[in-house]
């Protein structure tokens, strides 16, 4: 009961904060960042269902998002935007029949047709269903393939889906390379995406701790053992692909509304790459981690523009020194927190030595001409994300959260600063006099007393 009240209070505070933010002047940039975090967060937690909970590497998520984006665009495109000069490659049949407004009015559901928000609910649901159908098709090979082979298949599916809209045979439904523009932006606002994000979090959290979620995790840990325990592998794999594709389609529809346009370049493979970075950074298998990783990726992409501006060369050397020394300090902190010995390994000293060397070069050659000339590195934001991913894989493969989830117990529960007796028994170094001389001395003192 206490946790439920705390959760409701947090949601209420978030709503109040968003309301105040929407009323504040000059907050458009932050609102845009939050909107992207919510949209990409939906896509990330849906990808986490396959890659993290089910343990299958899927590289075709951008394809599911593209389907959702195109379906939403076709269904929600206003009448004036359907004119032939705006949608030159779209067929007359698609222009006249793929119209949600006509469908609803034909079914006598005028009260839905008269509301743009209710129409968007229906359009996003249909977009999710369309992506889910393709998810079933993509999930079918998972019954036979594993590991890298399945990753290649999902990547192939994703690229096929991305390239198909440009084919002349399909352009009659997608407007070809021109894409579809003029989509209403109502569902791409911060309020719409916030509540959609909350719903997806609630649904996937309930799913994770249900019997289905435990079956997914059982398949991830050991398929043979899971099958021996009565888990239907084929059913649960296809189910996970279908649910994941559904929410990816919804995220694609929201993203199309946010951009008010959709084309094949919007949903290229970099979308899946960023989502993979997000869930790997936050922690594979953790919904909380996927959200945290998404927030970091989006903020780096939006507010990392200063990294690609022209600077004197010594700024680059100084930045490299800070990154190397930070990596050295971070690794030492992690190993110390885990009570690993030695605290600093030889490979970690390399980062520290490089950091010190770059710092010394910056200090002693600061006024040299080659240090003061202006340089500019384009694409540094993507490089930074890739470097973060590499460092995470080296030093903390499980990501920031690992497989843990946020809970109120982490904040209000008892803190175990002192290890229990069981933990002491498991920590060999604590009882090893060569590695922990203080403990050995204490034992000798106790024995002599």
UniProtKB/TrEMBL annotation:
TM stretches of this protein: 34-50, 57-77, 120-140, 187-204, 238-257, 269-302, 314-334, 346-365, 377-395
Biased composition (Basic and acidic residues): 439-449
InterPro entries in the cross-refs: ABC_transp_permease (IPR001851), LivM-like (IPR043428)
Organism: Oceanithermus desulfurans
Keywords, ordered alphabetically: Cell membrane, Membrane, Transmembrane, Transmembrane helix
Source species taxonomy: Bacteria, Thermotogati, Deinococcota, Deinococci, Thermales
Chain spans, region Disordered: 420-449
Protein localization: Cell membrane
Organism superkingdom: Bacteria
Protein name: Branched-chain amino acid transport system permease protein
Record's bilayer topology term: Multi-pass membrane protein
């Amino acid at each position: 009961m206490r946790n439920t009240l705390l959760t409701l209070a947090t949601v209420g505070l978030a709503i109040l904060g968003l309301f105040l933010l929407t009323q504040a002047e000059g907050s458009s940039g932050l609102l845009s960042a939050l909107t992207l975090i919510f949209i990409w967060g939906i896509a990330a937690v849906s990808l986490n269902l396959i890659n993290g909970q089910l343990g299958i590497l899927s590289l075709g998520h951008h394809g599911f998002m593209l389907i959702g984006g195109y379906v939403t665009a076709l269904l929600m495109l206003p009448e004036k935007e359907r004119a032939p000069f705006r949608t030159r490659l779209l067929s007359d049949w698609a222009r006249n029949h793929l119209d949600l407004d006509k469908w609803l009015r034909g079914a006598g559901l005028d009260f839905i047709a008269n509301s743009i928000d209710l129409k968007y609910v229906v359009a996003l649901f249909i977009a999710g269903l369309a992506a889910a159908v393709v998810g079933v098709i993509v999930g079918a090979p998972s019954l036979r393939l594993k590991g890298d082979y399945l990753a290649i298949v999902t990547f192939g599916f994703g690229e096929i889906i991305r390239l198909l809209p440009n084919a002349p045979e399909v352009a009659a439904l997608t407007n070809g390379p021109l894409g579809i523009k003029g989509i209403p932006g109502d569902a791409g606002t911060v309020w719409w995406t916030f509540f959609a994000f909350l719903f997806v979090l609630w649904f996937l959290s309930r799913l994770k701790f249900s019997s289905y979620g435990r079956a997914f995790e059982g398949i991830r840990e050991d398929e043979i053992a899971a099958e021996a325990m009565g888990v239907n592998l084929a059913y649960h794999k296809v189910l996970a692909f279908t649910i994941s594709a559904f929410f990816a389609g919804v995220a694609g529809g929201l993203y199309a509304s946010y951009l008010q346009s959709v084309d094949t370049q919007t949903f290229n493979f970099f979308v899946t790459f960023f989502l993979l970075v997000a869930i790997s950074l936050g922690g594979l298998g953790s919904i909380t981690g996927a959200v945290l990783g998404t927030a970091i990726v989006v903020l780096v992409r939006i507010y990392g523009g200063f990294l690609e501006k022209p600077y004197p060369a010594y700024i680059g050397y100084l930045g490299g020194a800070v990154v190397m020394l930070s990596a050295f300090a971070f690794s030492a902190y992690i190993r110390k927190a885990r009570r690993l010995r030695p605290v600093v390994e030889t490979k970690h000293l390399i980062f520290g030595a490089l950091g010190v060397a770059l710092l010394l070069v910056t200090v002693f050659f600061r006024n040299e001409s080659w240090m003061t000339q202006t340089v500019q590195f384009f694409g540094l934001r993507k490089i930074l994300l890739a470097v973060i991913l590499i460092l995470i894989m080296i030093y903390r493969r499980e990501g920031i959260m690992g497989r843990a989830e946020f809970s109120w117990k982490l904040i209000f529960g008892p803190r175990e600063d002192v290890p229990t007796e069981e933990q002491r028994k498991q920590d060999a170094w604590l009882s090893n006099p060569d590695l922990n001389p203080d403990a050995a001395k204490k034992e000798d003192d106790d024995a002599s007393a």
